[in-house]
């Protein structure tokens, strides 16, 4: 059953215009899905969307992120090492946000859409913070309950989540682009934040050269799992409408943009996503070396991922945020 919406997820406008029909990615069908563009703010969003009840059939053995390092066979340890590198970047950014809180406090951190909570595990080990993670499923931690026993993990949708105390840092690592009601989520998030809370959001960046180059095969669309594909301008519009303002914009992310680019190349080739990736590892590495000069310019030439640091809007003027 399709889930059709009549307004823009970012600005609320009804000026939705047909933009493109794009194929399902990492899924063995010939289905295509319509994306529309807002005539007011420019947001590109999926419409109609797959109903939440049916979305699970797009998270199968073909979905590479769920398969994890094991999909790469004998190269799994190298892939796992790169995932730990991403966690270290995220922990460093969260610690930087925590440093602005009261001295002597370890802080309270909420990770929305935590998946396998290795980021929270690392952050807590480095800072001693109270670490809370929520997700719609416990698939990410169920099999390793003892390992993550020091974390406060909960199966919950944010619209039903409640907390008796505010958090100092709230993180959303590649969660917002999946959210069916982002304005409502961000508006409600203010209830679990105080005036100095930092909100860290990382999403694919529509305004990137990889999207322009790869077109319908760009993995940032993640069709039909992503409900919207944000640019810096449309993300800023959504945040301000929801009562937040961007304090810092990074036109790159903790997640390396090259793997997304590589997956787009594989989409174009029509590979079997359920097969082992072991035989593709050397080609993956060769491509990474060949394109390294481009991806090293990510601060100046956005490569497909962006991160923002936001604060609750206190009213008054909007100071220009910092760009990195």
Keywords:
Rossmann fold; 8 helices; alpha/beta; single chain; 4-stranded antiparallel beta sheet
Describe the protein.
The chain is globular and about 50 Å long. The termini are far apart. The longest helix has 23 residues. The strands form three sheets. It has an eight-stranded mixed β-sheet with strand order 8-7-6-9-10-13-12-14, sandwiched between helices. The chain has a four-stranded antiparallel β-sheet with strand order 2-3-4-11, with no helix packed on it. The chain has a two-stranded antiparallel ribbon with strand order 1-5. The chain has 324 residues and is α/β, with parallel strands linked by helices. The chain has one domain: Rossmann fold. Strand 2 and strand 3 form a beta hairpin.
Brief description of this entry?
The protein is an alpha/beta fold. Helix content is 27%, strand content 23%. The strands form three sheets. An eight-stranded mixed beta sheet has the order 8-7-6-9-10-13-12-14, sandwiched between helices. The chain has a four-stranded antiparallel beta sheet with strand order 2-3-4-11, with no helix packed on it. A two-stranded antiparallel ribbon has the order 1-5.
Question: Which runs of at least 5 residues are low in confidence (pLDDT < 50)?
Answer: none
Tally of helical runs: 8
Q: Mind describing the biggest β-sheet?
A: 8 strands, mixed
From the spread of the alpha carbons, the general shape counts as globular
Strand order of the largest sheet: 8-7-6-9-10-13-12-14
Name of the level-1 CATH class = Alpha Beta
Structural class: alpha/beta
Rg, rounded, reads 19 Å
Quaternary assembly:
single chain
Helical percentage: 25-40%
Tell me which CATH architecture applies here.
Answer: 3-Layer(aba) Sandwich
Strand content: 15-25%
The number of domains: 1
Number of strands: 14
Q: How far from one another are the termini?
A: 42 Å
Give the H and E element order: EEEEEHHEHEEEHEHEHEHHEE
What is the residue-mean pLDDT, rounded to a whole number?
A: 93
CATH topology: Rossmann fold
Identify the CATH homologous superfamily: Vaccinia Virus protein VP39
């Amino acid at each position: 059953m399709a889930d059709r919406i009549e307004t823009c997820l970012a600005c609320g406008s009804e000026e939705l215009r047909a933009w493109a029909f794009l194929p399902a990615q990492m899924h063995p069908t010939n289905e295509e899905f319509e994306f529309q563009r807002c005539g007011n703010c420019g947001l590109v969003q999926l419409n109609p969307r797959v109903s939440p009840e049916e979305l699970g059939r797009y998270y199968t053995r073909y979905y590479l992120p769920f398969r994890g390092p094991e999909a790469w066979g004998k190269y799994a340890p190298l892939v796992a090492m790169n995932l730990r590198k991403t966690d270290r970047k995220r922990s460093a950014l969260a610690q930087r946000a925590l440093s602005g809180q009261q001295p002597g406090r370890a802080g309270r951190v909420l990770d929305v859409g935590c998946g396998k909570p290795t980021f929270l595990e690392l952050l807590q080990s480095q800072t001693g913070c109270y670490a809370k993670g929520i997700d719609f499923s416990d698939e990410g931690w169920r099999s390793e309950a003892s390992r993550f026993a020091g974390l406060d993990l909960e199966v919950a949708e944010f619209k039903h989540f409640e907390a008796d105390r505010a958090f100092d840092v709230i993180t959303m690592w590649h969660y917002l682009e999946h959210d069916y009601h982002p304005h409502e989520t961000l508006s409600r998030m203010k209830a679990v934040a105080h005036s100095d809370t930092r909100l860290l959001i990382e999403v694919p960046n529509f305004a990137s050269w990889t999207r322009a180059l790869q077109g319908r095969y760009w993995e940032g669309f993640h069709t039909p799992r992503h409900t919207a594909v944000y640019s810096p301008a449309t993300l800023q519009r959504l945040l301000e409408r929801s009562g937040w303002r961007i304090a810092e914009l990074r036109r790159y992310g903790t997640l390396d943009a090259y793997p997304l680019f590589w997956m787009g190349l594989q989409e174009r080739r029509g590979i079997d996503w359920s097969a082992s990736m072991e035989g593709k590892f050397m080609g993956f590495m060769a491509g990474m070396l060949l394109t390294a000069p481009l991806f090293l310019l990510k601060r100046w030439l956005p490569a497909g991922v962006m991160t923002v640091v936001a604060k609750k809007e206190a009213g008054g003027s909007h100071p220009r945020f910092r760009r990195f």
